[in-house]
Amino acid sequence: MLRAPLATIFFGLLLVFSSKAKPNGKDKKAKQVVPDIECDARAGKISFPEFIVRCPSSCRETKEKVYGTVVFASISSICNAAIHNGVITNAGGKVIVKKMAGQEPYKGTFANGIRSLSLPKWRESFTVSVGKPKKGVIYPATLESQKEHSTTSPTTPAPDPTTTTSELTTTTTTTTTTPPPTTPTTTTTTTARPRAAVHKVRDAGNSHPYLAAASARQTQNGQAKGLHQVVRSGSAFAGRFPPRINPGARRPEAGANNRRQPSVPATSAFSRVQPVQPERNQHTIPTNPASDPRPEISEYERWYFGQYPPQPADTDSGPKHLPETLHTRVEPVEVWKPEGNPFDLDLSDRGKDPLPRVPDTQGNTNCKVDIAFLMDGSWSIGKRRFKIQKDFLSEVSQVINVGINGPMMGIIQYGDDPVTEFSLRQFSSSKDLKPAIDKIIQKGGLSNVGTALFYVNKHFFSDANGNRGGAPNVVVVLVDGWPTDKVEEASRLARESGINIFFVTIEGPDDSEKHNVVEANFVDKAVCRTNGFFSLPVTSWFALRKAAQPLVKRVCDTDRLVCSKTCLNANDIAFVIDGSSSVGTGNFRTVLQFVANVTREFEISDTDTRIGAVQYTYEQRLEFAFGQHNTKADVLNAIRRINYWSGGTSTGAAITYAAEKLFSKSKPNKRKIMIVITDGRSYDDVRAPALAVHHSGVIAYSIGIAWAAQDELEYIATDPDKDHSFFVDEFDNLYKYVPKIIHNICHEFNSQPRN
């Protein structure tokens, strides 16, 4: 009798528990929708600070460009960056992308079948991680991007090869980790004051200049119509030094028993307490940059652009200090307005101690160079050879005749990490240098020359350390045998920053020892040029002192210090400006603003970059010639004073006129660059004039606006067209192409052969 009720109760309880264990579909967690992207999708073209995407298969074969390692520049392909970082394979998969502030430099490496490229600096970065959604974070289910104009199709808009081509849609969903805005949106125009040539003034922490000015003012975002929609940013992070490389086997040599081995502890000669030396600062490696997502703001506020920017209540036109996080409206920089004056922002090292008092000797005025000697302090060199090295440096300091109107000399000792023994400004006479060199104590460690070159490039040649205007920067590397890390990347960045690298190799590897070298042909990969002028092999430590005179003779031959010339200080640039009736007065001022924004990125002087300008209609007018204005302020004022002409459009005749009036007077050591800006089809032929200037060595860029003819833009531009020809739908979007043009000019310059 009791069995039936007990069975009923048992099944009832079972139903209750099963219903709790299996909730209905309404309570189930919604599945994360992951949007698909193409292989060429770039992080900078997507507006969200953190998002998840799915990459297709076979992206590696597309060879879409990637810049950086671990932390990538936002112009990199998301999918290929994920493959390079090992987050996904070539079969594709889900990737979480997190944006952060720009950094410098982005180091190129080879990993997982993808070669990432180096980039000195960029305005925005991102990292990739495995596409497993984080708990409590809601990622956007769909994204948005818009197609852009191409220079290859006159009627149908097509995406630029360097931008994403995927069609995406908008959603308002954002990551829950995005903080709300804490400051009101403001309109801020921030510009930099003029600085000397790259080899003259290099601020600490900036390893390469050619994108520094543009990226410090502009941050990329993906909802723009133009090629490079940008947002000002006031933060940048220095890049990491490369990881230490296993030094591998060390070569045996005569007298090896007298040389200290890496495992042998230092003797009392190296461990005794030394007095504190202010200039001897141990180099430390900076940490990874932290994430800096932008708060969610409206599309209008983010991408607002107006011809007349609102005036802030604060009318102070003095130096403006950027906050750590800056959210601004996107506007072109108006360099001749008080609030946009590029010479107002004080980036100098004011308040620093002045150079030492003027000594009795002014130095060798025929050898005005700033020299950094990298001396080998590794344990492999031994105590005796370290003393020989110090004697050599003392000899060089006496032969070169140090003085404030001649050469200035500093020394960095390297081992595992570099240490500044003394800077350029610390001693201003050869007499004072000799006892300072004698007091240098060996630091020990490996022979990490690459790490030392990174350090010199980023920190040594600065105003604070005594870097002067008008003096080429020279680095002389002394190395026992061979380096224990790679030097190629650090040397490339140094060369692109205007540093002339010499290598003095003592007892270099012979044929039987070359298999022990970490990086083959390390001398040719490091020096300024591979023609033999910048390398000085010494067969024996006992012969080193005899190399002092030949080394000084080469270092003082400033005409052959060719690496002092960079993409920013070695050009003759001619602007050929359309002044026809279709442009109009207001748009003509916008064109002049574009010309000024490009100009202000270069180092202007008679010995550096020179600027000229021609305006044309049916006729042509030389507004100003090369060398007529030799400071940046004078050139910008001359651009501002150009008056609108109005008339027809004869672009071909204008190109011929620019060749005759400007490029015929160009200096032989200058790169000749022509930038043609037009808004319509020419009434005359442009092919023959363009071909003539191409054959004369002129690099031509064409900028077409509104009704410009695509075929004519391509005839004018130097090959390849995609790097030299640009089209923009309206005048107000011209400013977006400034960083692209600067980047391309510098990329071409730095790609020249070094033989």
TrEMBL record:
<feature type="domain" description="VWFA">
    <location>
        <begin position="370"/>
        <end position="555"/>
    </location>
</feature>
<dbReference type="InterPro" id="IPR036609">
    <property type="entry name" value="LCCL_sf"/>
</dbReference>
<keyword id="KW-0964">Secreted</keyword>
<feature type="signal peptide">
    <location>
        <begin position="1"/>
        <end position="21"/>
    </location>
</feature>
<keyword id="KW-1015">Disulfide bond</keyword>
<dbReference type="InterPro" id="IPR002035">
    <property type="entry name" value="VWF_A"/>
</dbReference>
<feature type="region of interest" description="Disordered">
    <location>
        <begin position="237"/>
        <end position="295"/>
    </location>
</feature>
<dbReference type="InterPro" id="IPR004043">
    <property type="entry name" value="LCCL"/>
</dbReference>
<keyword id="KW-0677">Repeat</keyword>
<feature type="domain" description="LCCL">
    <location>
        <begin position="33"/>
        <end position="126"/>
    </location>
</feature>
<feature type="compositionally biased region" description="Low complexity">
    <location>
        <begin position="151"/>
        <end position="177"/>
    </location>
</feature>
<feature type="region of interest" description="Disordered">
    <location>
        <begin position="142"/>
        <end position="195"/>
    </location>
</feature>
<keyword id="KW-0325">Glycoprotein</keyword>
<protein>
    <recommendedName>
        <fullName>Cochlin</fullName>
    </recommendedName>
</protein>
<dbReference type="Pfam" id="PF00092">
    <property type="entry name" value="VWA"/>
</dbReference>
<dbReference type="Pfam" id="PF03815">
    <property type="entry name" value="LCCL"/>
</dbReference>
<feature type="compositionally biased region" description="Polar residues">
    <location>
        <begin position="258"/>
        <end position="271"/>
    </location>
</feature>
<dbReference type="GO" id="GO:0005576">
    <property type="term" value="C:extracellular region"/>
</dbReference>
<keyword id="KW-0732">Signal</keyword>
<feature type="domain" description="VWFA">
    <location>
        <begin position="572"/>
        <end position="741"/>
    </location>
</feature>
<dbReference type="InterPro" id="IPR036465">
    <property type="entry name" value="vWFA_dom_sf"/>
</dbReference>
<dbReference type="GO" id="GO:0007605">
    <property type="term" value="P:sensory perception of sound"/>
</dbReference>
<comment type="function">
    <text>Plays a role in the control of cell shape and motility in the trabecular meshwork.</text>
</comment>
<dbReference type="InterPro" id="IPR050525">
    <property type="entry name" value="ECM_Assembly_Org"/>
</dbReference>
